[in-house]
Write the structure tokens for this entry.
Amino acid sequence: MPRFLLLLLIVIAQKAFAQSVEIGIIAGGSNYKGDLQDQGYNFNQMHLAFGGSLAYHFTPQISVRGEIWKGNLSGFDAQSKNPANRARNLSFNTRIYEASLVGVYRFLGPEPHRVSPYVFGGLAGFRINPYTYDAAGGRYFLFPLSTEGQGMAEYPDRSAHKLYQIAIPFGGGLLLSLSDKWSIGLETGLRITFKDYIDDVSSTYVDQVLLQQQRGDKAVELSYRGDEIPGGNPLYPKIGIPRGNSKANDWYYNTILRLQYRFLGSSSSYNNRKNQHRLECPTGF
């Protein structure tokens, strides 16, 4: 997906040689909301995210933007306010790579307005590979363990997970023009996903014996971890007991600072607007 977007960005840049094009760098924080993160917006589990973008402007207010960024997501039952979640004691981490193409609308053009709010929306592809650490500190990737029976013949409604998935990005921000070419912005973007397994938690507990036979002892150990808590319940939950909330898909989001540099071609709408502004006759003497 990142290679496809890079090729697309190159094509856009070639076609827009004489138009207005912006390149940018982004840096900020990424997070998620799901079964292991039950708060709406949380800074405690936010991780560094960074990337780059390329935008082509059709008008001073309407543009299309391609972007690639990398971040991290995580969730820990130990930090939950819900006693049932803390007793479950699950956790996950994952690196996330996203490539997106979105339309951007600025409510105010960059000239003569120095500050302009904007909104965006489009399509994104992302890659995740969640993992966790066992009690001894060993790292284990969760998808191959099928902790809820994913990909097992006995659970045909639970398909094996895919590392590459699709999301709908949308959000908004505020841009500040530093000069005719440079601008800086603050942006918050949300991502709607179509799966509930960013954190590898969604449905119900499966047959412990069956899981052990097909995926091994580690799959059983990491699918329920209440026995690792002092005073926790050492008994593996019965078949069908809820492990997560399958009615709500996972989301992820980021809050970033954006630094952009604008190239102005000879036929740029920005140049036309500036020239028109300069040629206007004074209205008073």
Q: What stands out?
A: Confidence is low (pLDDT under 50) at residues 265-285.
